[in-house]
Fold this sequence. Notes:
The chain is an alpha/beta fold. It is 43% helix and 15% strand. The strands form 3 sheets. The chain has a 4-stranded parallel sheet with strand order 1-2-3-7, with helices on both faces. Strands 4, 6, 8 and 10 form a 4-stranded mixed sheet that branches. Strands 5-9 form a two-stranded parallel ribbon. Helix 5 (121-141) links the parallel strand 2 and strand 3.
Amino acid sequence: MVGSAVCRRLSQIPGVRLITRTRDEVDLEDESAVRELFRVEKPDAVIFAAARVGGIEANRRYPVEFMTENLRAQLATIQAAYESGVGRFLFLGSTCIYPRMAPQPIREEALLSGPLEPTNEAYALAKICGLKLCQYYRQQYGVVFHSAMPTNLYGPGDNYHPEHSHVLPGLLRRIHEAKESGADHVTIWGSGTPRREFLYVDDLADALVHLLELDDPPDWVNVGSGVDLSILELAELIAEIVGYRGAIRTDPSRPDGMPRKLTDISLLRSLGWQPRIELEEGIRRTYADFQRSLQAGLLRSA
Ligand code: GFB
């Protein structure tokens, strides 16, 4: 989802030659394949959007894969980029790198100031290693290797797996199916009270290009919308957009995860960027894309 949005954004810039590889073409966990890719293509800049990602349930169920796959892929790519002379590397993390009880909205300085949220600790630790490794390369070798920490993302091309997806695509699908089947209620996981911030993926892509154009970007910077809402409010908003009029029930046997996760985006604003696509508009666009993909038999659900 992120890689495609970044390509959409970069293809609007004249003179940019995009170099991409699918998972089947190059396995980023294979160090020699990654080195060969850099030797052949010699990119000027790299945006590292590849990752093993998933929602709260996938993170809880597969901590080994979330840690090992992300560590291997990022280490291979960051090292190969440096060795082949790449001067600019933009690594993507996640706001789950911040401590569970970080003061809200979360500022960049909160990194490593307290214990992590247990449901995504493995993924967060891998991402912290990636951003720190970029910082160390910059410090030790003078290359501009830096990071962006996106908040919860959504948009076209998301993963709609019923168990492994993030909350927004998960609820979009469940509420759409409830409407289609005429169900009198839908169930959302947890208490419905956790608060989350969401950013439309094309806004993220725009922010990344902005960061790449800065001569001296921060080592890491939050990329969010600066606005949050409760999961129950999110479900109600999705129901309104989908046109579903049944009841929304909660399931307290499912985990809530972090009680609140809202980023402070004043650093990014001070660098001249701000989000454009509001949540309601973003969900409308995402729902239209969901329906198109469903009809074409192309819905991602892995
Ligand atoms: O998006 P989500 O899976 O991840 O869940 P996190 C957010 C909240 O929505 C949790 C609730 O409180 C869930 O219990 N929720 C309600 C649901 N219904 C659903 C549903 O149908 N599906 C899902 N998935 N959630 C992830 C991290 O945390 O955020 C990752 O695990 C990553 O590492 C990502 O950082 C951005 O926001 O809790």
